Amino acid sequence: MFESEMLIGGEWVPGTGDVLQVQNPATEETIGTITNATTEEIDRAIHAARKAFPAWAGLSPFKRAELLHKAGELIDQRKDDIARAMTTEQGKPLNEARGEVSKLAQTLHFYAEEGVRVHGEIIPNESNAYQSLVVREPIGVVAAISPWNYPAELIGWKIGGALAAGCTIVVKPPELTPFSPLAIARALHDAGIPAGVVNMVTGKGSSVGQHLVESPLVDKVAFTGSGAVGLRIQQSSLTVKKLSLELGGNCPMIVTATADLDAAVKGAARRSFRNMGQICIAINRIYVAESVYEPFLSKLAAAADALTIDNGLDDPGADLGAMASAEPLGKTKAHLADALQKGARLMAGGRPPEGEKFRKGFFFRPTVLADCTHEMQVMTEETFGPLVGVAPFRTLSEAVEKANDTPYGLASYAYTKHMDEMRYISSRLDYGNVAINNVDAGIINAPYGGRKQSGVGYEHGREGMLEYFNFKHVRICFDEPEDA
Ligand code: NAD
């Protein structure tokens, strides 16, 4: 059974609210409980963050960097334990969970370094007697709210950027996967980050998350999650505050006639099905040039069928584990049924894996559908499951038009060997991220964010840290010294 205390003002407290059960999605067994923080406990965490803010903001960025580096090192040392907690609560294979924890450690090291490079500007004035300084100051108290698909990384981007900038933070981890975030909070605490700088309160989004968003003592909300909740947050904030919203997507891939077909298939299989498709930048739909459509389809179906699936603790190196809960599995089945009923052709998957060990748990085979149209949900809505729809195209302009034809704008992909096609596609795709001849659309030192209904603001990179600053313009009038 996993630990469930909350971190408030540097103290680990058990919490007095309702108890919520947490399940292992591969076995449906209860693995621990958390408490739904009461409003008094949430307010105590916010007050602790407020109290800690002036000293943390006033600390030298070099000192903050030292502490962030130390936290990164501790997280790396505790990688196996944190990863085991993550696989047990989320379902992804253990090796993948280890990789995610390593990336979290790298994020903290990255922001430790980035924090010491914050600088302002000196702006010219009409008269040389004046000087305008533009300085950056930390915003204040941040509420960080994140989903269950990447329980470590998504919290790490927020903690890294906020702490490096000099902000303090109250984190509400996802209720499905609270234990790996709590282990991360423990590492930050043990690294010597002062009391109140990082707080973590557990519980439901509708009560704990909502209370954080509504608090007038919170200066910024950093949210990753669904579009519906993101919109609710934007609409329900009672005071003016800065928001960054990293929301869902329905990400397209274009495969042109000049593409390296095997590389495109490899990329498509990886980015459609990794983490059981529960990735905001998962490929949901693929548009393939007519001349290579059937060969691409049969290769992708074979690649999907070759992926191994298992309980991620039993087989750490499996390609895929369980889905995180019954909800995304139900949506995957609903999108599949909708597409089949509207004429899609099933090329791979479409059923749970066979065997006694899959009798319990939320498992499903990676599924490929051919001949999909935009009348089908899979082509226009986020499935968040191991399902991808494929459709042929005649001209590149038709492919780009279809790729842009959803309310989303998070990530997009293309495979082509032709420079002219690369430029045509990348300049016309209305997405925050475009990956060409690869499917890793985000790297820690480049900005990452969505357009349209996929969100506002950025994480990753320098831009991800600048979200936690206010600008201040200081305009000074100088006189000549009397004895000059
Ligand atoms: P969700 O929106 O249901 O929940 C996300 C978080 O918000 C959870 O911690 C939840 O408790 C909390 N929450 C729920 N209601 C709230 C409220 N009223 N006020 C404040 N907080 C509230 O999302 P989910 O189902 O956990 O995650 C899947 C979604 O996240 C997908 O849409 C996916 O695309 C998106 N996502 C986006 C990115 C990105 O970087 N753009 C990354 C990962 C996931």
Automatic annotation (TrEMBL):
Gene3D superfamilies: Aldehyde Dehydrogenase, Chain A, domain 1 (3.40.605.10), Aldehyde Dehydrogenase, Chain A, domain 2 (3.40.309.10). InterPro entries: Ald_DH/histidinol_DH (IPR016161), Ald_DH_C (IPR016163), Ald_DH_CS_CYS (IPR016160), Ald_DH_N (IPR016162), Aldehyde_DH_dom (IPR015590), Aldehyde_DH_Superfamily (IPR050740). Residues 12-474 form the Aldehyde dehydrogenase domain. GO terms for molecular function: oxidoreductase activity, acting on the aldehyde or oxo group of donors, NAD or NADP as acceptor. It comes from the Bacteria. Keywords: Oxidoreductase. It holds the Pfam family Aldedh. Belongs to the aldehyde dehydrogenase family. This is Aldehyde dehydrogenase family protein. It comes from Jiella pacifica.
